[in-house]
Structures are given as structure tokens and as C-alpha cells.
Amino acid sequence: MTDGTQGFNPFDLTAPMPTSLTATDVLNLVSLFDKSLERMENRLIAKMDENSQGAAARWKRHDDELAANTKRIVERFEKLERALDDHIQVANAHWSKDEREEIANEARIRPIKGLAGWLWRNWRDLLIIAIGLMAFAAAWGEWFGRLIGPHAP
Prior knowledge:
Number of strands: 0
Structural class: mainly alpha
Mean pLDDT: 85
Strand content: under 5%
Number of helices: 2
Largest sheet: none
Low-confidence stretches: none
Oligomer: single chain
Distance between the termini: 183 Å
């Protein structure tokens, strides 16, 4: 240690700093950096492994919750679907009953509406026919009355 470079210990902060580094000192520094990087790498790898195991547990929990939620939603949907089917059957029966009643009503009312419409459209012709029938009945009554009446020939 005559020139201050022999046996340099980088961790000894009380020792004077050398003015130049020998190949051994550089090799020691490179070795020190290599060991530090290796320890850092090992710590990072260990931390990443720990995180991946934690993430695996979280993803497993997430997958389990997703499966449970999916099952719950499917069950709820099926329950709603069954209830909706029941309501649709009731509604269809009700609508079918209403439709049958409407068809029966229409069958009763249509002829009356049709006759009323036909009378409204043809009232002039019907009036002429009625006057003609009354005139014919009067003429026939006159003729019949003369045939069998007190003034018969």
C-alpha cells in the first residue's frame, strides 16, 4: 500500500481514494457490479414470482367469481324467462278469448250493419218498390172487391 492503490477496498470509506486503478481494482469493481446486478436480478425475479403467484390467486378468485356470477345471472334469466312464458301464455289465452268474443260479436253485428248499409244505399229504389207494391195491392183489392163484393156482376 505504498502508492495507495494496492488492496483498495471500495467499502472502506476511511481509506484514501487511489489516484489510479489497477487491473485488479477494475476487475474487483466489475465483479462487485456483477454481484450487485445478480443480487438485484435475483430479487426482481423473486418479486416477480411472488407477484405472479399472487396474481394467479387473484385471477383464480376472479375466475371463480365470474363463474358464480355467470351461474347466478343465467339462473335469474331462466327464472325470468319462465315467468315471462307464463305471462305470455296467460296473455295469449286472454287475447284469444277477446279475439273469439270479437269475432262472435262481429258475426252478429255484420249482417245488421250490412243490411243497414244496403238499405241506406238503396232507399230510393226501395221506396219506389214499396209504392209500386201498395199500388198493386190497391188494384188487386179493388179487383177482388168487385169480384166478390156487393156490386158483383
